[in-house]
Amino acid sequence: MKRLVLLSLPLLMALSACEQLGIDDPVKVAAAKEADAKAIGSACRHAMRAIEDCYVLNPKAQKAAVYAGWREMDEYMRENKLEGIAPVVPRPGAKPAADDAEVKPAEKSADKSSDKPAEKSADKAKAH
User: Which of these, 19, 39, 44, 128, is most buried using a 10 Å CB contact count?
Assistant: First the structure.
């Protein structure tokens, strides 16, 4: 019996050092992913984003944990009467203001080019 314990002791020590070999513990990995998803949800609520926007912006995050973090931050902000901070990244599907400025010069050039053929056709009509 004593021999069995002595032989199994190095095996147990080797198995307890799996993290040193680069083998991740699945329980710790799952806990880290859940904590990250809760942090994402909290950050989304603080940035005044809808929960649906959080899901779209973070497709790999666990939806239940994102919602839990969003809900916890919502309760915290309501209790402490805190205002959210406007997000820097635009909402999905929203047009940024810079795009509107770029469209207007293009529209003007399109209008000018459409006027030229009309003038030419009017000149041809006068000639006939």
Answer: 44
